[in-house]
Amino acid sequence: MVAIKAHQAESFMKSPPAQLAAALFFGSDPGLVSERSTVLARTLAARENPPGEILRLDDSELDEDTGRLETELQMRPMFASRRIVRAIAGRRISAQLLKPILSSPFEGLLIVEAGNLKTDDTLRALFEKTENCFAVACYPDAAADIDGLIAEVLSSFSLSIEGDARALLQSRLGADRALSRAEIEKLALHSLGKQMITLEDVENVVGDAADLALERIAEAAAEGRTATAMTDFGRALAAGESAQAIILVTQRYFLKLHKVRSDVDAGQRLDDALKAVRPPIFFKQRDAFARQIRNWPRPQLDQALRRIAETAKSARLSSRYEDLYAERLLLALASMAAAGLAASPRR
């Protein structure tokens, strides 16, 4: 029954309490929520003998069996020690579901990931007030945290960075821990073979992390991953982002898809068209972007861009309903993507 403040989180992560039964990670940085959840799950699994088994659950997996979460926590795996269950808070995985589970002893260990929760939120209060449960705040990195992350990643590649380049890099990071780490890794891979990263390297390679965090929403919609798009959209709004900013980033993302698709239709090889994108596409996102190019024919991208432009105009003229307009847009784009996947031959 402990609330772990943002400045206490690193200490908590280095030495999780022995009596820990359940932990809630919440806040406006979804990448940090996910990263800390992953690290804690691995830490808890490793300190079991034999190592514990990690299982992930979300709302969709409880639709047919609402009692599955409790069942998994009460069971002991056949070839492992305790089971560590990572659950994503949502429609079903809520304070109402978790309260009776946490009020009684259970065999496994529970880690829950959530978005930005207010101090009076029932899920947050449940973890802060229940014995052997911990609620850990995850908010965007401060300058010192970003500097440490830069040093950590670049040292693993045996790279140094100029002072001006470091300052620019810091200014473009911090909105989301996972995206910040990915951008530094992308910069390091781009700079392999060099000893020093320059200001020009950062300008050419690293995008703005705040926009990149919103770009994940557009990416999920373009891939037809409706649930992910809606979850990330809700988290972005809870973190204070405006729906109009999300629409704008979505428009830029689909313009990028449109440019590459047009280049391919004009006879350019897909690999060459992807290499020409600036800033470069991170290698971990490259396959997903390539799939989207194959899935979205030019006419459908034209249609999508018209829909986005109409939504942007409506949101500007009636900002009172901008959240609703943006939500409908993302649902429509994800539906178009899913229809394209269903109609496409197996690749």
Automatic annotation (TrEMBL):
- One BP annotation, GO: DNA-templated DNA replication
Its domain of life reads Bacteria
PANTHER family named among the record's database cross-references:
DNA POLYMERASE III SUBUNIT DELTA
Query: Under which main EC class is this enzyme filed?
Result: transferase
As one GO molecular function, the record gives:
DNA-directed DNA polymerase activity
* Alphabetical UniProt keywords: DNA replication, DNA-directed DNA polymerase, Nucleotidyltransferase, Transferase
Q: Does the keyword Transferase apply?
A: yes
EC number(s) of the enzyme? 2.7.7.7
Q: Which family does it belong to?
A: Belongs to the DNA polymerase HolA subunit family.
Its recorded name reads DNA-directed DNA polymerase
**Catalyses which reaction?**
DNA(n) + a 2'-deoxyribonucleoside 5'-triphosphate = DNA(n+1) + diphosphate
| GO CC, alphabetical | DNA polymerase III complex
